[in-house]
Write a structure and sequence with these properties.
With 653 residues, the chain is α/β, with parallel strands linked by helices. The chain is built from 17 helices and 29 strands.
């Protein structure tokens, strides 16, 4: 009997979910869930077998050429999840399944965590105990919980107790997601000590072989506690019982290639499929999660006290009207005070590089990247770099081209580091930003030395705001705190508030009292004021009114359609065609409460020589509108035009 396989490929094919291939008689080991090598448009490709049958198609089929895997690497549960993703995110089954298959970097070895950590469960305080027992009582049911606790309130300890209970009293497994694996070295070390052989990690900084080995151990049921970043939400665990998203507000949980999933949405779907408990934890929850918790749509648990008898640090505002000095005299004095006491300082400046602006005196404008709608940034070692596309040019050549008529303006983390070394020559100073941590082992080393009290001052971008728990950090300084507030995006206030609150939480986490200095040129801005008072509830009440008045989530759902092309006219013409077809289809469907904004150029109009135009759709229900978007996806756009479809986008820039 001739056998055929339905194969899903990682391509945005428009008409079919799968392609049909004949299984050669000699290939006895073709199974559902295995990858196979096939030919598509005269090119060798890889695909996943979804189904095997004997139905003879009414067209000529090609043969499967080779079986890639010895054992299936995609489970039937993952195939079902992939089918849901295909429908929800208007993608293809193959694209969805290939998000689940491990990938990684070939040049990075597994990190050895040489950090002291507590190897036993700690006693919970009353707030922690109450949250833990309430969440534990829902094990075995589809449920979602928001664990809202101030920085240092001990949310991690609640997570560990829940996972320990699940591991020892049930046959279920847990997935624990963190935004950035390298910044959670203390937590990882504790998990290693407590869960031992049952712990597996899945994150992009691992070697492909190491990640695949862990993945296969999870498949076989040999590992039941899985820790990782966004893509670990797809871990093929046996009998899923618990999913935890730490820092659930973090933007890194959103995928930026098709399908553009959010790990929180995948967690809730897996909860529905497996009757698992979902825990969303944060000191600054997303506006949507907090809104749904307050309305009773998901369970709500609060922890308003710090776990180790420490108090929240006092926050002070410092108005800074000019850029003559990078740091105010007040903050410099405070830093010296802390260093004299042998205490540690963390300084946040959310701008990479040395000088974020290069001014042309002749042209009287900032120099832009030739490929993008953004300014070039000067970096040490004499490079002018674009942070969007990576374009770089020698500063010396740039200066010659402008006849020397250029001036560096503003300050980034590299310039701040130089300034601090000049002011405090005997201090041990380290910088953590994207440039300094291209090797993840450096990042782990710096964090380890900070925790071990071997660094005096740590400076960096937003990455230093997450997860650090160093007992001798008693001063946090924020420089240019209003950076990000001017972005034309409805989440900009939420992001800045979260960043300021999270970094403030790095100070005074043990017996030593902490202090936070926020330097800003806009001290009266409501977000800055709310962050100074460290009152998320107050910020939420203000922000939710803005969202309601402007009709943004959680009061509507958003869909973003974006065209990009190397040819400006093609991108513009394509978005106009999409708008016309969208209007026709919405009118025919008699859909109510749908608002279509645009088309318009995207705020970052040009990225990597691609011209970008977008449409934003606001609606109450995605279901009917998704069918229309699927029809729009089938439109024959000109060659060289790519259509991005983003359901529930995290930003609109």
């Amino acid at each position: 009997m001739i056998r055929y396989a339905e194969v899903a490929i990682n391509l945005p094919i428009k008409d079919e979910d799968t392609l049909t291939y004949e299984i050669p008689y000699e290939l006895k080991n073709v199974e559902v869930g295995k990858r196979v090598e096939i030919e598509v448009r005269n090119k060798k490709m890889e695909g996943v077998v979804i189904e095997i049958h004997s139905l003879i198609p009414n067209y000529k089929t090609k043969f499967i050429q080779r079986v890639v895997d010895k054992e299936p690497i995609i489970t039937t549960a993952q195939i079902e999840l992939g089918k849901w993703m295909k429908e929800f995110y208007v993608s293809t089954l193959g694209e969805s399944l290939y998000k689940m298959i491990p990938t990684g970097r070939r040049n990075i070895s597994g990190e050895k965590l040489d950090i002291a950590a507590e190897s036993k469960l700690l006693k919970l305080n009353p707030d922690q105990e109450k949250a833990y027992k309430s969440i534990r009582s829902t094990f075995g049911k589809e449920s979602t919980h928001l664990l809202y606790g101030i920085t240092g309130s001990g949310k991690t300890e609640v997570y560990i107790h829940l996972m320990y209970d699940l591991l020892n009293n049930t046959d279920k497994s847990a997935i624990f997601l963190v935004p950035e694996i390298s910044l959670t070295v203390q937590i990882l070390k504790r998990l290693e000590l407590i869960f031992g052989d049952q712990l597996a990690m899945l994150h992009s900084a691992m070697k492909v072989s190491e990640k695949f080995r862990n993945y296969q151990q999870i498949l076989k049921g040999e590992k039941r506690i899985i820790v990782g970043t966004r893509s670990a939400i797809f871990a093929p665990v046996k009998n899923l019982g618990l999913i935890i998203l730490d820092e659930e507000h973090d933007g890194s949980y959103k995928e930026h290639s098709n399908p553009r999933y959010h790990a929180r949405q995948i967690a809730m779907q897996r909860s529905k499929m497996s009757l698992a408990t979902v825990v969303l934890g944060s000191a600054t929850p997303s506006i949507e999660s907090f809104y749904h918790a307050k309305r009773g749509n998901i369970s709500f648990h609060t922890m308003k006290e710090r776990a180790k008898s420490a108090e929240l640090s006092k926050v002070f505002l410092q108005e800074k009207k000019d850029d003559k000095d990078i740091i105010s005299d007040t903050l410099l004095f405070k830093i010296k005070q802390r260093l004299d006491k042998k205490e540690q300082v963390v300084l946040l400046l959310n701008r990479r590089g040395h000088s974020p602006l290069i001014f042309s005196k002749a042209e009287k404008k900032m120099l832009e990247c030739p490929n993008c709608s953004t300014n070039l940034c000067y970096h040490n070692k004499g490079k002018a770099i674009c942070h969007l596309c990576g374009y770089n040019e020698s500063y010396a050549k740039l200066s010659d081209r402008m006849n020397g008529e250029i001036e560096l303006m503003g300050a980034g983390t590299q310039k701040l580091e130089e300034y601090l070394l000049e002011k405090f020559p005997t201090a041990i100073i380290e910088r953590l930003d994207q440039d300094a941590t291209k090797n993840k082992e450096i990042l782990t080393d710096v964090i380890g030395r900070l925790i071990a009290h071997k660094i005096d001052i740590l400076t960096g971008t937003q990455m230093i705001a997450k997860g650090l728990d160093a007992s001798h950090v008693t001063l946090v300084g924020v420089i240019n705190a209003n950076t990000g507030l001017g972005l034309p995006d409805f989440r900009s206030s939420e992001r800045v508030y979260s960043l300021l609150t999270q970094v403030s939480g790095r100070a005074g986490r043990s017996e030593l009292k902490g202090e936070v200095i926020i330097e800003t040129s806009n001290s009266t801005h409501p977000v800055i004021q709310f962050a100074t008072r460290q009152n998320y509830d107050e910020f939420f009440e203000h922000e939710i009114l803005v969202r309601r008045d402007l009709l943004y989530p959680p009061f509507c759902r958003l869909i973003r359609l974006l065209t990009r092309s190397k040819l400006e006219t093609k991108s513009a013409d394509s978005i106009e065609l999409i708008k016309k077809e969208l209007d026709i289809r919405i009118a025919k469907s008699d859909l109510k409460d749908v608002i279509v904004l645009g088309p318009a150029p995207a705020p970052f109009y040009k990225i990597d020589s691609n011209y970008r135009n977008h449409i934003v759709i606001k609606c109450n229900s995605l279901q009917k509108l998704r069918d229309i978007i699927r029809q729009i996806k089938m439109l024959p756009l000109p060659a060289g035009v790519y259509l991005e479809i983003d359901i529930d986008p995290m930003d609109l820039v």
